[in-house]
Amino acid sequence: MKMKQAAIVMAMALAAGSAAAATTDFSSGTQGWEGSQPLNGIGGSGIDTSQGNGAPSYRTVMENFGISFTNSTNTDFVHDYTATSAVTFGIDVQTQSIRFFGQEVQRDLILELRDYDNATNGLPYTSVWYNLGTLDAAVGGWQHYSVTIDATSSVGLPAGWGGYGAEDAVGNPFLPSDRTFASVLAGVDEIAFTTFQPGYMYGFTDFDVSVDNISVSAVPEPSTYAMLGAGLLFIGAAARRRKQG
Fold first, then answer.
1. In what helix (H) or strand (E) does residue 43 lie, and over which residues does it extend?
2. What pLDDT score does 9 carry?
3. Which segments of the chain does DSSP mark as H helices, in order?
4. pLDDT for 144-196, tens place per residue?
5. Distance between CA 84 and CA 243 in Å, rounded?
6. Could you give phi then psi for residue 140, rounded to 5 degrees?
7. 3.90.1010.10, 2.30.30.240, 2.60.120.260, 3.50.30.30: which CATH number matches 22-219?
8. For residue 221, what are the contacts with CB-CB under 8 A and spacing of at least 6?
9. pLDDT band at 39 (very low <50, low <70, confident <90, very high)
């Protein structure tokens, strides 16, 4: 009986962890992810089965000011992130080329969590954003980028994070005074991996960039670890009793 109880406890703990994790590797379609569309009608975004980091990739080839990979429909990626105490975002990127006036250049990759329902100041949304690192074709191959939010209930912006939803006199973005880091995380309507960094603007650039294995995984709550530990203790004790018997 106790073995059965332990199995149930462990199943509940594992389910709690798996329910808070999601990955899109594009082997089952886009799962809500959308790439940028070209301004000149040349190029575009779509699944590429000729390359991928373990599966097909999602590739954007176009000329534009910047590119974005966004999701506003998949509830595995668009939801209240304050429901768990911590969360990690990850993405694999292969930069084939980023050319500006014929020269290879670098662009920053930004993770932006957007709330469209509480926009103010004439801007389209309120957001919090983080610079994941640099896209550079010279590096070659697939590169992994990630960031962990250790406290989703934080009022102020954690180190390295920026805010958007208001602008100062010269156009520098900041988080409006009536919003907090946690209040934006509680109402995320769209998640974006983008080269558009709030407050910056670039000219027309030729992009050839692929993404894969986009993931979000919540760090299990202490109670989940406690359930898992209890299940293991039950099983260990039962095994010892059987051996002694």
1. strand 43-48
2. 41
3. 2-18, 181-185, 222-244
4. 999 999 999 999 999 999 999 999 999 999 999 999 999 999 999 999 999 99
5. 40
6. 75, 150
7. 2.60.120.260
8. 16, 84, 85
9. confident
